[in-house]
Amino acid sequence: MLNQRTIAKAVHAIGVGVHSAEKVRLTLRPAEENSGIRFVRSDLPEMNPIQAHAENVSDTMLSTSIGDSSLQVATVEHLMAALWGMGIDNIVIELSAPEVPILDGSAAPFMDLIVSAGILEQKGRKQFIRIKREVKVTQGDGYASLKPYAGFKGSYTFVSNHPAYENFPKSVSLDFSSVSFLESVGGARSFGLMEELSQAQAINKCLGSSLENAVGVTVEGVVNPEGLRFDDEFVRHKLLDAIGDLYLLGKPILGEFEGYASGHSLNNKLARALLRCEDAWDLVDFDVNAGNLIQPIIHPEIVSAG
């Protein structure tokens, strides 16, 4: 069988929140099997941990936040994508401020941090959400869907009529059984139009944004002197965001995701819709002794925010 994973030891990083501009210390700690992914605010030690779960998402404006009226953790999607990419099931994420540090704007630094900690295989069986029928949500012209697939495949189409994006690829489709998440998606950075930065900062967003943690774009092209990491870095980053948002389901997906002009709001809407449609999925694991056959193990209703 495939077993659950945590990290072998605690590791730390220091950065700034892309929206708050606050300096934050991030600590990743090992966690017991079946405990899932939990966020802890070290600056608020009296507060209970926040379980990383789609039902705990509290805000989706320009990033994904989880929590409630008394406790928030913002911009979790890149770290969640990194945890998915490294196959981490159980971990405690400790933060000294209300936002995960942005680091370089991608998932890659978080994956490097996990590698430096080492990965510990646990005794509990790793569980997957297997999609049995299509679930689709829409918002305006955009949509996001999950449908059956033997493995995990992600497709995304980026839609923008702004001339700054005219010369960049708009679509990507990747089967993660045959490509590396780190090499194909993990390094894709956040991006945005330079002309919109002041508007975002006027509503207290992107206060910590810089060319060190995002790709700046104008009608003349990419502002960053180093250029792009991929010709289609923008659309790959949108897929990275979606993978991080969907990992808030609490388990990795066996199925195919497709997004068209979707963002954090639609990604969370899709995750919540899937949880409501219990006939659309089941929980399974891989039984190595049965020739890697997927075996149903638990009724869907046990998957909850905890």
Would you kindly provide a written description of the structure presented here, covering whatever features stand out?
Helix 1 crosses helix 5 (233-246) and helix 5 packs parallel to helix 6. The chain has 306 residues and is of the alpha+beta class. The strands form five sheets. Strands 11, 12, 13, 14, 15, 19, 20 and 21 form an eight-stranded mixed beta sheet that branches. The protein has a five-stranded mixed beta sheet with strand order 2-3-9-4-5, with helices on one face. A three-stranded antiparallel beta sheet has the order 6-7-8, with no helix packed on it. It is globular. It has six helices and 21 strands.
Helix tally?
6
Q: Could you report the average pLDDT, rounded to the nearest whole number?
A: 93
* Low-pLDDT regions: 298-306
Report the principal-axis shape: globular
Domains (count): 2
According to DSSP, the number of beta strands is 21
How far is the N terminus from the C terminus?
Answer: 25 Å
Specify the structural class. Answer: alpha+beta
CATH superfamily of the largest domain, called what?
Answer: lpxc deacetylase, domain 2
CATH class of the largest domain: Alpha Beta
CATH topology of the largest domain: lpxc deacetylase, domain 1
Tell me what the CATH architecture of the largest domain is.
2-Layer Sandwich
Please write the string of helix (H) and strand (E) elements: EEEEEEEEHEHEEEEEEHEHEEHEHEE
Largest sheet: 8 strands, mixed
Q: What fraction of residues sit in β-strands?
A: 25-35%
Computed over alpha carbons, the radius of gyration is 19 Å
Helix content: 10-25%
